[in-house]
Amino acid sequence: MPTVRLVVDSSAVTRNASRTVELARRLGCTVAGVTKGVAGHPEIARALLAGGVETLADSRLEHLERLRAAGIRAPLLLIRSPAPGDAARTVELADSSLNAAVEVVEALSIEARMRGRTHGVILMVDLHTGREGLPPPRIPAAARRVGSLPGIRLLGLGAYFPMTGGLELLREGLETLVRLARRVEAETERPLALLSGGSSNVFRTLAVEGHPNPGINHLRIGTAMLLGFASSLDPVTLPGYERDTFRLEAEVIEVKEGGEGEAILALGTIETEPRFLFPLQAGVAVRGATSDHLLVRLPEAVRTGDRLAFRLGYPALCRLAASPYVSWEFSRPR
């Protein structure tokens, strides 16, 4: 048995995806299922698709390549603005991408024309959130330029909203995004298909807490469907969601003698983010970690070779999924 393994209930991921798609539909939104938290694992992608997700999204071209190599034919969206040097691979692997630089879209246009393809572009708007995007005053001119490029289809506008910004910042930002879209449509005389308003925390605000949707119609969601959480940094389960989708199991390689019960497990910060490991056994607590070891406090004696189990936060899952030192085990569908 592997020393460190992820045990996955893919049917629970599918149920979370189905609930997300239905709640988003009531808002008038479609959902792109984000797979970066599982390093583009094809089985998880299939679980999302089985739940009704129609488009898969990822920030890494390597993950999109993994999905295509596994035979997945769903539309793929690259959700990190591509580098100019990645223009060719972006057009080859992704049907569409988020973009924050007109110069990069021009490079995508050249590659799309060479391949006889049309590549979709969502222009990102910087709403003072510290993420990618053009300032709002530059969006209309950028949209006109992007819309004129051969091999490029301007799909719409998008933005990112951190969970730390608060409700008022989110409301103002979404309203700004919608106003910009209407202005672009009026100036270009072309409708925009997508207003991509953000991630799981935006979904929670609109679909779960019931705040009004000012007009977005697209969400990029990973955390809610993968782990049942509203935010990658706030492990609070959404109502009606399942959180027992992923379980980490790790083997005890040393039990400390004397004093308070402590043990060392065979994983460290190379494999995961210890702050986002939540022990399933009562009384177990994570005390610290090195690159190779995880130190835990124990309420009762365990033996070397025993296994401890943990629920995961999003940062822990991301690192585990990308690690070559972690094996995967899929439970039987229920």
Structure notes:
Helix 5 links the parallel strand 5 (96-99) and strand 6 (119-124). The chain has 334 residues and is of the alpha/beta class. The strands form 3 sheets. Strands 1, 12, 13, 14, 15, 16, 17 and 18 form an 8-stranded mixed β-sheet that branches. It has helices spanning 10-27, 42-50, 61-69, 87-93, 102-115, 139-148, 167-188, 200-208, 223-227, 314-322; strands at residues 4-8, 30-34, 55-58, 76-78, 96-99, 119-124, 152-158, 194-196, 218-221, 229-231, 234-237, 246-255, 262-265, 277-279, 285-289, 294-297, 307-312, 327-330. The protein is built from 10 helices and 18 strands. The protein is elongated.
